[in-house]
Design goal:
Mean pLDDT: 94
Number of strands: 12
Low-confidence stretches: none
Strand order of the largest sheet: 2-1-3-4-5-10
Helix content: 40-55%
Oligomer: single chain
Strand content: 15-25%
CATH superfamily of the domain at 9-174 and 216-245 and 279-295: NAD(P)-binding Rossmann-like Domain
CATH topology of the domain at 9-174 and 216-245 and 279-295: Rossmann fold
Structural class: alpha/beta
CATH architecture of the domain at 9-174 and 216-245 and 279-295: 3-Layer(aba) Sandwich
Order of helices and strands: EHEHEHHEHEEHEEEHEEHEHH
Radius of gyration: 19 Å
Number of helices: 10
């Protein structure tokens, strides 16, 4: 890469995923010259390839969005794959950045790193204070490993800004709507749309629907990342990014049905797993940082459904 740069260079891993695409769509991302290699261009599980890429391109900053992700069914079926692949990616990126002398790394983690027994009041100091939720333990352990790598790198070199953002559950444009791979909100959008399309009068909900979840529009996460890149030294080592309030699964179904216009009945399958009863982030540090998400649940679901309809055509 040429030494003269008109703009600072930003490497975005996982730029083809939901978080990465929403980041690329942010109105202020144009201040950066973005590198967005696909998994075919750069296998993040290959330590030598990652090191060589970073040495060659020398980005000014890195945002690590890449990961093998999936819903509760996928995590339960393949915990080894979620643990191994995500650990390898995280370790290789952090070590590669250290070796290449890159001073700024924004690492995206997950609220699944929090102990299953807490439910609410999930403040950053509670990570590793208890057992993880078994339905996505493999993925969670990998995210903890990468976060710790960032912390250890800064401990060894205080001049580094290797900060971890811990978003709550996400939904939005470029989400995965296939039931085999989707999370709660996109899965509900797909189910309700199909019920509307086929004229079905009932939709099955796993469990009793009273479990609570915090879902944020992915465009808001992109906004937090852009701000973090502008002032990385001002961030704590790890920072929750979320709403600070949640909804029941039943409420998500009801709001999606209202947005789409489906008026059928929800029935509950009590034999199905539901995961943690509640998982609500403490956003005290986020509030001190002076940032909060701007998209309401109704507006976010409406925008996501419009995107889904375009993708279906």
């Amino acid at each position: 890469m040429a030494e003269t740069r008109d703009k600072p260079v930003l490497l975005i891993t996982g730029a083809g995923g939901m978080a990465g695409k929403n980041l690329m769509a942010h109105p202020d991302i144009g201040m950066w010259q973005c590198l967005t290699p696909t998994s075919r261009d750069l296998d993040l599980r290959d330590k030598r390839a990652v090191s060589a890429y970073l040495e060659d391109t020398r980005p000014d900053a890195v945002v690590h969005c890449a990961g093998v992700v999936g819903g509760i069914q996928a995590n339960m079926a393949e915990p080894m794959r979620f643990l191994a692949a995500n650990s390898e990616m995280g370790i290789n990126i952090v070590q590669g950045c250290v070796d290449a002398g890159i001073s700024t790394l924004i690492n995206l983690a997950s609220s699944c790193m929090y102990p299953k027994a807490l439910g609410h009041g999930l403040s950053e100091d509670k990570i590793l204070s208890g057992a993880l939720e078994p339905t996505n333990e493999g993925y969670a352990i990998a995210k903890v490993v990468t976060m710790r790598m960032c912390e250890f790198a800064m401990r060894e070199n205080p001049d580094l800004n290797y900060k971890t953002l811990i978003p709550c559950n996400l939904y939005g444009k470029w989400d995965k709507f296939d039931p085999k791979h989707s999370h709660l909100v996109p899965a509900i959008i797909h189910k309700v749309h199909e019920a509307m399309r086929t004229g079905a009068s009932q939709i099955e909900v796993w469990g009793d629907g009273t479990a609570r979840r915090e879902f944020m529009y992915a465009g808001d996460l992109a906004d937090a990342i852009v701000r973090a890149l502008s002032v990385p030294a001002a961030l704590p080592d790890s920072l929750n990014i979320g709403l600070g309030h949640d909804h029941t699964i039943n409420e998500y179904y009801q709001i999606v049905a209202q947005v789409i216009g489906w008026q059928g009945e929800f029935i509950h399958d009590l034999s199905r797993p539901v995961g943690m009863k509640q998982k609500l982030l403490d956003v005290s540090q986020q509030n001190e940082w002076g940032w909060s998400p701007r998209t309401s649940l109704e507006d976010g679901i409406r925008a996501t459904y419009e995107f889904y309809l375009k993708e279906e055509k």
